[in-house]
Amino acid sequence: MRKANVLVKYKVPAGTELTKLTHRSATTYIYVGKPMDPSEGSESVVQLNDKLVNVKDIEGYMKHVRKSASDEDKDNLEASIKADRQTKMGIITDIKQALRNANILKINYSATSEHK
Questions:
Q1: pLDDT value at residue 71
Q2: CB neighbours (10 Å) of residue 7?
Q3: Among 6, 40, 74, 82, which has the highest number of CB atoms less than 10 A from its own CB?
Q4: This protein's superkingdom (predicted)?
């Protein structure tokens, strides 16, 4: 069940080697896409929980998540990036670096099944 209201438009890419998440309570979802509200502009934005953030805010937020997580969840912390297929790789790279700096080393990318 989704905890956050999605504030960005995103259409996930298709993939062939897909697996389901196992530790949902230890997963933080990061949405990347164009904002739903046109007054926010037309460039890709990043959403954590219910608010739009700068990429530089991700590291501090994820460190806070790690600090407040249960011992079991600390071992299973992961991030799931749900990015629009048109998102520039520079943004994804910056997000990955922020997660790496926060010691969140398990990263999933959401995709839809590719049907031929």
A1: 86
A2: 17
A3: 82
A4: Bacteria
